[in-house]
Structures are given as structure tokens and as C-alpha cells.
Amino acid sequence: MLWDDFLNSVHHDWRGDGAAEDRLDDSDWLDAWMDKQQLVVDHRPTAKDITSLKRLRALLHRMAKSFVDNSRPAVEDIVMLNEIMADGAVIRTLSADDDGYRIKLSPIGKQWTNLEAEIAASFSRMLTDNEPSRIRICDNPNCLWVYYDDTRNRSKRYCDDKMCGNLMKVRRFRARKKAESSSNNTN
């Protein structure tokens, strides 16, 4: 999804070395991400554009965190999201494939504000079309990725069970072994 890929553009080293990288500052990453999302703008981002993108990301993170905390986003945040989406005039195009019909929304403008409107609209569509209570933040304290829990029983704890899930399982196992070893040494 557009909104969560954007929201997770701050990369934390999930293994725990404390390193973090803001990928919005990496033009190669930004180009690849925009290609993947089929987003087009008419110029390279200025410092002002990057600052605005980071402000949007902080807004979405605040709103996502409110759902994780079982509360509602602040009214000011909803107002701000609506202001961002106001720059999002789109052309609607119907397409058909073997899976059915889809409507594609393509921004009319090619400015960075139009791109921000698309990201904000993606987050808003998720809120209206899905269950905001399924928004989660990875339980790995070194990762902190935001994701949508689409499991049937709402039990997903990690952004990726193979990476963060396995790492945390190994850490719990080692902590148990260490505790057992210390208690055996004191006896």
C-alpha cells in the first residue's frame, strides 16, 4: 500500500544496532519508490518538498499511533490531512483484467503537493475501507515499522515474522537460557 510504504521510509536497523536512515533524503530510494508506486512529478524534490514530505509522514505516524493506542486521531490532524488531500485532483480510469475491474486514480498535477495528496488519500481510503483498529507497530523495539494486520484473528505482532519475529524469538530463548544458567550457578 502506498501509505505504509511511505510511512516506513524511515528505516531502523531491526537487528538493534541503533542505526536509522531517513530514506526520503536518498534520491535513489525516492526514485525507485516512486517508480514502484507509479507516481510522477515534474521536478526533483527541493529541500522544501522533502520537509513537507517529512511533515506528512509525521502526521500519518501520529494518526497511526493513535489507532494503535486505541484512541482517535486529534481533530487538528484530520483537518491537516484534509488540507493535504485538497491538492489532489485526479483523473479516474477504469481498467479490466482477469481479476475483475479496477478504477485507477491518476493525479492531474505533477507537483509534489499532488503526490502528498495521493499518499494522504491512500491512508484515508485505508481508514474508510478497512478497520483502523488493525493498524499495528512492530513489537520489535528496534524496528517500529507500521503495518496493517490482515490476519483473521488480529494476532500479528511483527512486521515480518521471518525477520523481526524470528529475531525476537531467538532473543527470548537466549534470555531464558541466560536466566536458567544464572539460577543454576547460584544454587
TrEMBL record:
Extent of the signal sequence: none
Ranges of residues in domain Zinc finger CGNR: 134-177
InterPro entries: ABATE (IPR010852), ABATE_dom_sf (IPR023286), Znf_CGNR (IPR021005)
Matching SUPFAM superfamilies: Jann2411-like
Protein name (database record): Zinc finger CGNR domain-containing protein
